[in-house]
Structure formats: C-alpha cells, structure tokens
Give the backbone structure.
Amino acid sequence: MSIVSSIRSLATTLFRRSRMEADMESELSAHIQNRADDLERSGLSREAAKRQARIEFGGYERHKEDCRQSLGVHFIETLLQDVRFGSRTLCKSPGFTLVAVLTLALGIGANTAIFSLIDSVMLRLLPVQKPQELVELLRFNPSRGGEPTAGFTNALWEQLRDDQRIFSSVFAWGSDRFDLSRGGAVHYANGIITSGGFFNALGVRPAAGRLFSTTDDQRGCPSIAVLSYGFWQDHFGGAQNAIGSTLSLNNHPFQIIGAAAPGFYGMEVGNKFDVAIPICATTSFDGKRSRLDERSWWWLRMAGRLQPGTTPEKLKAGLKVLSPQVFGGAVPLDWDSEGQNDFRRRQLVAVPAAVGVSELREQFAQPLTILMIIVGLVLLIASANLASLMFARAAGRNKEIAVRKALGASRARLVRQLLTESLLLSFAGALLGMLFARWGAALLVRYISTTQANVFLDLSLDGRVLGFTAAIAVVTAVLFGVLPALRSTGISLTAAMKGSQAEEGNRHASSRLRSGRWMVASQVAFSLVLLVVAGVFLHSLRKLITLDLGFDRSNVLLVNANVKAAGIPAAESTAIYDEIENRLRSLPGVTSAGRSSRIPISNNEWEQEIEVDTPNPPKGDDAGAYFTFISPGYFQTLRTPLLAGRNFDASDTRTSDQVAIVNETFAHKFFPNMNPVGAFFRIVDGRVGRPARPMHIVGLARDSKYESVRESISSQAFFPASQIPQDDDSEVFELRTGTRPSALASMVQSAVGQVNKGVSLEFESLEEQVDDSLVQDRLLATLSSFFGGLALLLAMVGLYGAISYLVTQRRAEFGLRMALGAPRTDVLRLVMRDVAAIFGSGAVAGVLFSLAGLRVLQKLLFGLSTHDPATLLEAILLLALVAFVAGYLPARRAMRVDPMIALRYE
Amino acid sequence: MTDQAQLLPGTLDLLILKAVSLGPLHGYGVLLRIEQISRGALSIEQGALYPALFRLVRQGLLKANWGTSDNNRRAKFYELTAAGRKRLREEANGWHRLVAAMGSALATEPEEV
C-alpha cells in the first residue's frame, strides 16, 4: 500500500514538474522577448536587440537552475537525474567500477558480518511478547560480595512461584541434553526443562497440539514433552500425527503434546532448544537423588515478567522483602549451621532479560567488539584507496566538469552529482557486501561452534543490521567521495577550457600529491596497527597451543560412557566400568587405557576444602583443591609422570584405606618443604553428620592443567575411581593409540556393546577438547590475520598508486636531471626517499596507535608483555618490505625514463 | 549606466515587494517598475529576478496568476498577499531605521563628539 502511494506521489511530482518547467520556460523567454521588443523600439535592429536582451538577462541555464532551487520541488527529480547520469558514467568505465564495487563489498561486507553477529548475540530482543518487561533473577550474598550469579534449586523456585506478588508471572527453566538413542552411540537433543507457566509467561503460541500449562507441572506428572518448531520439522517432517506419539529421552518414553511456534528458540542466545519437558517430569531421569528435592542442586534459572508500571525502586524494595521468605523456606537441611545462616542471608536481584541470557555473550562480547574495530579500520584503508582512485578519475574529467560549469552548473550542483556517483558505488558495494556478510557470518558461527556446544544464532536480517549497513555505506561514500569532488570542482574555468595543463595543472597536481601522501601515510599507519594486532593474537595463540599442559593431548580418544541410561544399579556401576576398561585396553591399536570422573580442560569441576595438620595451613577459599577420580591406567595414558610414591592399583578398593595422589602445587601449598607421600589430609564436607574424611597420600604427580589452558596451576588431588563416594552416572575412558583416535570409535562401540548394549557412548579426541577451549583465541588470531593481510594488500596498492602518480608528474624533472648528467641511481634515490618519508611518518603514527591499542587487548592475550617489541618489529619489517616493493616498481620506471623523450613531452 | 549602485544583499526581495505593491505586474514589468522607482540608479541582473520571485511566491508573500499582457502575450502576473504586505511594512520600517542611523552616524562632525 505504502509503495503504491509513494509511487503515486512521485508520479504527481514528476507530472507537476514538467508543467512547471514549461511555465518557467515560457515566463523567462517572454521576459527576453519583451526586453528585445523594447530595445528594438529604441532603435536597435531586431537581431542586435535579441542579442542584447539575452546578454542583459545573464546565464540563462544558471538562472533557470536557481529558479528550480527556489521552487524547491525537485529534490527527487534531481536525484533521479543524478542517479541516471551517474550510472551511465560508471558504466562507461567498467574496470574502475568493478574494482571500486568489489573493494567496497569486501569492506562493507566484513563490517556487516561482524555487526550482524554483535546484533544477534548482544542487541536483539527475544522474539517473545513484550520482551522489555522480562527480568532474570540472580542470587547474591551481601556478606560475601562478588558478582550476582544465576542458578537456583527447585526448592527456591517453588518458594518464589508460591510466594511472590511482584511479577505478573514468573517462570524457571534449566538446560540439559537428552539422549535420543536407545544405547550405543549417543544422539543428543538440546533440552530445556521448564516450569509449567514458561510458554504462557513468554507469550509463545503452539504451532501444533498444545504447550505446557501450570497444571502440567505438578509432582507426579506424566512424562510429556513439547518440541521446538525446527525439531518438529526436521525429525517428524512437521507431521500432525507426531503430536501424541512418544519420544525416547535418555531411554525414557515421553509423550509429545505439541510443538511451539516457529521463531522461538528458548531464553538462551547462542543455543536453540529441541525438546522441552516440565520440571516435574525429571523424576523419570533421577534416581533416589531427585533434583526436585535436592536443595544443593543449582540447576534452574528464574525470570519474571514485571507488572506494568513497576519502577526499579519498587522492584528492589519488593525483592528485599521477598528474598528472606524465598531463601528461608528452602534452606538445605544437611548443611551445618554456619552454612545455613549464610544461605538465609542471600538475596534476589533482578537484571533486564529483554535480550535473553547467554554465556556466549560473555565469552564473545569483547572479541566481537575488537573485530568490529578491526574491520572498521580495514574499511578506512579501503576508503583511502578508493579516494585515490576517485582523484585519478576526477583528473581525467577536468574538461567535462569545466564545460558543465561554463554552461551554468553551480559548484554545489556538481559536487552533489559527484557525490551521487560515490553513493551509487557505495550502495552497489553494500548490496554485494550483504551477500558476503550472510555467508561470512554463517561461516563464523560454524567456526565458534565446538563439538560440545553447537552455536545457533538467529542471523535473519533485521532493521538494525540494514540500518547499520546503509549508514556505513553513506559514511564510506562521504569518506572517499567528498575530497575528490570538492577538489575537482574547484578548478579554474579558463585554464581548464584552454586545455593547458601547465600552470593550473601543476597547482592541482601538487595539492593532489599532498593529500595523496597524507592518505597513503594513514593507510600505512592503520595497516601497521592491524598487523600488530594480528601478530599479538597469533603469538598468544601459539603460546597457548604449545604450552605444556602436564599431559600429552595427542592421539588420545575420549569415550564418554553413560551407564545410567542402561538402567544399571549404582552399586554395580564400578564393576561395569572396570570391565569396559579392561576390554578397551585389549583392543588392537590401543596402547594404554584409563578412565576418570572428568576430562582435563573441561568445565566439569569438583572443588572441596582441604584440612591438614601442618603448622599455618591455608584456610578458607585458599584451602580448596580440585578433585578427579581416576583408574590406575589414567596417568600412564595421559603421560603425566608420577614423581614419587606409587600409583593406584587393584588393592585400592571401596573398603580399603582411603588414598590420594596429589600434584606438586598441592604438595607445596599444604606440605611446604616436606615429602607429601605418606602424609594425611582431610576433606571438609560442610554437611551435618559428615566428619572430615582422612586421606592418605600415596603418590605425587606432576602438575597439570585442570579447567583451562590459561589458568595458573591449582592444587589437585586424585582419588581411585573405586573409592568414589557417590554414584557416577558417566565416566570418561581415555584410550591412547598409535593412529588417528577417531578410527577406534566403531571398535570401541562393539566392545562396549558386548558388556552392555544400553550404555550410551560419546566420542571426542583429547586434542579436540583442548582446541575447543581455545576457540575464542583462534577466532581472534585467524580473523585478525586475515584482515591484517587484507590491510597490507590495500596499503600496498595505495602506495604503488601514489608513487606511480608522483613519478608520472615528475617525469620531465627526472628527464632534465638526467640530461644534465645526474646518474640514474640518483633518480631512484629521489623516489625512494619519498617512499621512505611516507612510510616513516605512517609507521611512527602506527606504532603509537598500536601501543595504545595493545594496552586494551592485554586481557585477551596470553604470556605477552604490554609492548611485545618483537611483534612490533616484525610488523614494521613486513610493512617496510611491502612498502619497498610497492615503491621500487614505479621508481625503477622513473630511472628508465629516456631524457630526450621526457623533455620533448614537456 | 556608470553611476549605478550594486544592490546590498537582501534588498532585492524588498524592492520586488515594493514594486508589486504598486499594482500587479509580470516579471518584466517588475524589472521596469524597479528601474522606474529607483530612477535607474539600481542595477539588477535581469535573470536573477526570477529565482527571487519564485522564492517569494513559495514563502507566500506573493501570489502568481496567468493572464494576458498589454501586448497580448500570455504572462504570469504577481500580486502581493496579506503576508507580503505585512512583510513589506516591517522591512521598510527596518530599512528606514537603518538609513537614519547610518545617516546620522556618517554625518557626525568632529566637534560633535
């Protein structure tokens, strides 16, 4: 509708416009007629009178143009005229147009790609009803300080659900993975476990069947599930009869009651849910230890919808009253009294949740911002190159512009015409760039996805991305178009018309040279910054990759085996794990095998407080140690050497002495200047009726990393898997092989199948596991190198162009010098001195910018000093080499100038 | 023609308003009327008249109608609107004040200081 009406209004404008043009023409010509009549009456001949009348009138076309301006109706008209003319001119030089549009498409495309990621990770509102009303609830302990954290127990959620009167609705959800397979290789679906009111509170409608309601989420509820629209389509082809059928989740049947509307992916940005089940339905997964009743199981996130008109103060006051009720009613009864009091002091705080919640956001907010700046600089460098091209083009159009000026075009009108051309180029580049961006952004999302976390982002175009792209297209056009347009329309008419390049040309050329130098120097500076940034990220990544982790990550296959799904009773699980481990060890190609409760460099952590009887032992938070339960084969398989004492062996059983192996950091911290082997420590439990358990240290292992490659090594204690105090649903087998780890997978699957077909398995190599933890560093290193290289190329082209132009301008001078006896090398030296001057000024500025920039990046870098002089030097040398080559080629041409020809040309 | 004065910026509009206030005129007539009432002392580039006329119409100070001129040519006649009349009054007053102030300033003799 709006398109139709805008076309209609355009049509009327154009129609009215042609009448107005005719009126104006007749009015102005009548004036000249009248004047001519009067002059004729005063005695001039008819011809002389007409001529005189025209002269007195002044520039006919110019006045007409001014009249149009006064009428003020022809903005669209002029624009269309300019666009038509601009397109014609651009089509006449396809080479120039192609280069310009491609350069712009790369520059604008890169900016759009990064911005669309920023948009979808950080800025985009959740596609739910009135997302601005949503807040997430976090918990905060005022006596301990620190940042508020997410994560609540079901008891807390039930208190909030039943007690609150601040929100118009509250809801809770947890994330989990559900295994869709029935034993064997796992096939995970992304699950969310939601409170009954989840979909209603968010205003999500069903696409088929129905969604949960509060009555579905009551203890003892049947196992029901809701599918996401995408999962319904992918797995069931969107079939209506899928609703009502059953779906196996972790080997338990769930009845599908409906599918959610398309476009709803859950509360978490970066992840999309496949299957949702109500909180009450988790009892089918949990054994005796149910997450519904376990008051130390922090697995839910909570959010609420504000009542209209709730002020931040009112919300704060309300939460202050609500907090003691919620926490007071959900105290973990097995905690000691100190812990319980601490628990009661906790408070709820609310943070806006209109853009959803996201771990991805915390991880990638800073890298994306840095990448945004990097691509912005690349676009600046590209704009400088384009400006040079526009200058060169404008020089070739001097005559055309002079003619148009002589015919009455005002300078403003000409500048506007030239800027329209720039805008045309820029928008053509932006359109092509958006294609690049869609492809590039999707590629980046795939790049930051890991085996464990498949990143999903909604990258569909929205107004913000389109607006951003249009805005940078305009800014870019202004950047590369304004100076050349002003310069080329500032020519003196007479000189240009005469066609003499002599005086006018020289003035023009020298000013162009000056701005050319200035632009190339800034290109050098920005390129240097990008090279330094790329250099430090590469160095940092290399340090992280080659870092000694305390274990050997190559050629180790990780097999995550889950016996719970197979319905094996907890008491028998250790025996089953032992049997699986023995079978795997004897597989051909497996040199050694071990197993553990967790894998190194994973988020799965187990930390507890340690007590020792040495003088001045560490206390409180300082006394924590990280735990891993391992089988005797673990250290050998990971190649972590034992430095003293013994390894675990078959004699360590559930009933034997409680034993431990500690790492060097543990030994130094708790037993300074002592041999830890043979000593005892106790694990502080913090729960009622659980006295600290004494542990006998039997061995000392070399230090190794626990959670991340970047961490400084912390105290670790290892315990025999046979003495694990609670049932372990899953354990990880480590298999060292001589070949590619993934080649073992099918053999492992059949070997485990012989023990129990119900055990579900998941494969990954230890190397992948470590690599995945460095995805952020790799992203920054890869992309900054790519853009650094691009910047280098652009700067090289820019420098080459500038020096070539300079050489052409000074041809005659060089010819004269040589004719007067200057050796050719003198000419070469002259040109190279210019190159050095441009490079030098650019490099100095670049170094200053880089030093400022590095300080900001410091937090993301690993093991580098703030200055990192080595990287700086490398970048300068690389850039100098490129500048030398880009300058030498035209300089050599200058040296080969034949003096006779050069002088005759002049 | 040598003793013609250049127009001060902004005075062309005022002259046009004045000329048209004496009776509806077509473009060429405005020019002649200005020459007549300024006794030929002010020079206007003829073509520059029209952008000014169009601007005044757009500002609602003049209105234009097509009619027939004395020599039977189709011509556009300009007329003052109410707003134009008011503007002319204001501008003329302003102009008189300026002239009086400038006149007395320039006529000042050393002994009067």
